[in-house]
Amino acid sequence: MKIKEWFIGDTSRTSVQFFRSLFVGGIATVADMLVLILIRELMHVPEGIAAIFGFIVGLAVNYIVSTYWVFAKAKVKNRIIDFIGFAVIGIIGLGLTQLIIEPFAIEGMFGKGWFVQWQIFGVLLPIDKYYIVGKVLAVVIVYMWNFFARKFILYRKVEEKDEVPGKEKNEAGDQEKPEEQPEKVHITKEETKK
Fold first, then answer.
1. Residue-level pLDDT at 164
2. Are 98 and 131 in contact (CB under 8 A)?
3. Rounded CA Rg of the chain
4. For residue 184, what are the contacts with CB-CB under 8 A and spacing of at least 6?
5. Neighbouring residues of 76: CB distance < 8 A, sequence distance ≥ 6
6. Cβ contacts of residue 138 below 8 Å, gap of 6+?
7. CA triplet 18, 21, 26: central angle to 5 degrees?
8. Helices marked H in the chain — which ranges?
9. Mind listing the pLDDT tens digit of every residue in the chain (194 residues)?
């Protein structure tokens, strides 16, 4: 596989899409976490509500970059319907995020989180910052959900445009020339008598 394929062009290879998705997810996660932390710290909004705003910004960044660089071929041609499917998968991811952050929250949806009540991290981390640990854990779990759900539910394989009939691809994806086979020689009975 060529290095160029990891960064340029459409691809159906899961490994390349996963690699690209890590970059996109990283950018979207930074946007998500910045919004989460800014809203929580500057506006003193509860962690669960701040996480929703971060999610919306991260989802928008992820969708825009993913549709052009990670998954180029949507099963649905209508961008609005495609975005709705993308968002539904993301909303399920948001639900998972909320469930994961909840035990780390001071002001969670169900009150004070378990890790906060028991001060699990002791003096290593102030209890009002535990939600960041929950968010980091959620990022890893929800990333896996989002990638595989989107890949297998929303997007189809990229058809190879440059594929030439009669040529097969090797493991690297390069086209190989068909093996030359010697021409068959037909000998007639008259030629064998000579």
1. 40
2. no
3. 26
4. none
5. 82, 85, 154
6. 96, 97, 100, 101
7. 130
8. 3-7, 14-43, 47-65, 79-101, 114-117, 130-149, 189-193
9. 677 878 887 777 888 888 898 889 889 989 988 999 999 899 988 877 888 899 889 989 989 888 888 887 777 778 888 889 989 998 998 889 888 888 877 766 666 666 666 676 666 777 777 778 888 889 889 889 988 898 888 886 655 443 444 444 444 444 444 455 555 555 666 655 65
80 token code pair: 């609005």
The residue behind tokens 């390069």 is 174
- Distances in Å between the Cα of 33 and the Cα atoms of 6, 59, 157 are 27, 12, 32
Instruction: Report residue 46 as tokens.
Output: 């509860």
Six-digit token pair at 157? 């394989």
Q: For the chain, give the number of residues.
A: 194
First to last CA, the chain: 55
Residue 88: which residues within 8 A CB-CB, separation 6 or more? Answer: none
